[in-house]
Amino acid sequence: xxxxxxxxxxxxxxxxxxxxxxxxxxxxxxxxAVEPLGISFEMVFVDDGSRDSTALRGEQIARRDPRxxxxxxxxxxxxxxxxxxxxxxxxxxxLVTMDxxxxxxxxxxxxxxxxxxxxxxxxxxxxxRRQDKLLSRKVPSKVAxxxxxxxTGVPIRDNGCSLKAFRGxxxxxxxxxxxxxxxxxxxxxxxxxxxxxxxxRHHARQFGKSKYGLSRIYKVLLDLMVIKTITxxxxxxxxxxxxxxxxxxxxxxxxxxxxxxxxxSVSGRISMTLAxxxxxxxxxxxxxxxSGTVGELVYKLGDMRxxxxxxxxxxxxxxxxx
Amino acid sequence: MILNSTPxxxxxxxxxxxxxxxxxxxxxxxKSGLEALGARYELIFVLDGPHPQxxxxxxxxxxxxxxxSVVTLTRYFGEATALMVGFEHATGSIIVTLPAYLQVExxxxxxxxxxxxxxxxxxxxxxxxxxxxxQTVRRRSFHGLLRYVTRLRFRDLGCSARALKRRxxxxxxxxxxxxxxxxxxxxxxxxxxxxxxxxxxxxDRHHEIYRPRNYLRGFLDIFNxxxxxxxxxxxxxxxxxxxxxxxxxxxxxxxxxxxxxxxFHIALGDRPALIIAxxxxxxxxxxxxxxxxxxxxxxxxxxxxxxxxxDRVIQYPADLLAHSAEEQPQSERHRAVVGVDEQADQS
Lengths: 322, 347
Fold this sequence. Notes:
heterodimer, B: 11 helices, elongated
């Protein structure tokens, strides 16, 4: 069991939440898939505050296998946080993330590495033969993916698939928080990376039960709104908020004219109600522009700015060509 | 008598505010409880604002060589701030917080510390509790509301007798008047909280006067905790929900007015309802924009703060593993836990 003292080439990141039956088979499957490739690798297993014996088994695995780094959360923080922790604690040049429930197949890792070697920065999996319930899982996911693709402009068919590969230096600089894991490609898109999509195998669940249901649509929609703001308008909050205020201004003008200038008004006389609404709409428009100014200030003072990502990808593409 | 060379195990922090028991009586009670522990301890009194008489009485204790230190704040900052200042001076590995008035009996301190074997923070609840029906209703509704908001169940957050591991105050930053909610915030960060029944002191059994201001503050505190716990990382979830609802109500009203105008020819300009509709629409847009602004703050500042708290990171170096496999496979001697108790939150 030769372990490279240097940084490993590949890190496989797997979050586990109540997966006591899956963690051992997962460990074996990853080794079985990656060892024949002949590259140095490590595994980062994240226990997302499981209530069963997942943590215990994870510790046992770490005790047997020095290639396993086991990160144990104090409580359950959700899949995004677990993925983010895995990314933070991984040291590989290429990071591969996957689900801990054995629905992704580690045998696909080789395909991802081959694709990364072609010079892509992000490779995402597409579960083209998805083994899940049609109505509660597949249909909402289809709609969500179509919407995400439309709004973010990143045409990925399967955002929910956890099996993805990233260039480490890129993904480590993308902030992941809340429930953003399904938007990682969209978030990374700010940095302008080359993204490839490949078909992956998908197995039906063997152990445990699914933790994600249908109630996410509202959250996905709001998150999408955030992503859209962040990806396209963060660098110019003032412009964006001003655009938002434009309809309010126009409605305000129309109402003022209709209320105060009898020739244009519907009732043929001055209407204070109509004029009052016009003033309210104008007030709203002014406040929005003011918010945009505050946004501009926040952006200036922030340490995470999309324009900084540009430098990041530039460095990456140079590295990948050499 | 415990030797001076042994390290301090228990640091007791006593924030002194308006409600206080005379020093001699308070100290005698707490001292009896602490002596029973058989470990070295210190008491840190933090005077929240000037209390000259109390301070001179405490300084007499210091002059007598008692293990007491006194920190005086120049003005009133709130109990939580006083607690954090006291913590900066504490050297013990176990921190005990006690109120400056006799709320619980001194010998209950041992019970709280004993509970730390199983938990990271042990909070007392007064049992049996002397209170009239009005106080009971008040207490129940407070904790019920809190439970509804945070989904955490506590019996007596008003009891400030608590024992905690040092880690907790290192990681949970308190300010202002958040001291009652320390268990809530600690639980949210993944610490284990234990509740321990403690005997209420005779002195605590008189009626405490609550002014309307106190009720308002209690309510605002709960709202504050609710926001901290649920939405700090996702402001748009909170503001978006309210904003969209407001916008929708305004839009429906406006559509109704337009419908009336077209079908029944009721002039739009004659309806005061139009003002309300436009107010709601504008308000909805503004609230939503605030949420977006919050998201912008979080995104641009997300670099430093993490969304999770790591309990342990475990990785065994390869050479060590090879050895233990030959000699004693299960030996605890070779335990190589890397980065125990790593803290990931810098926000």
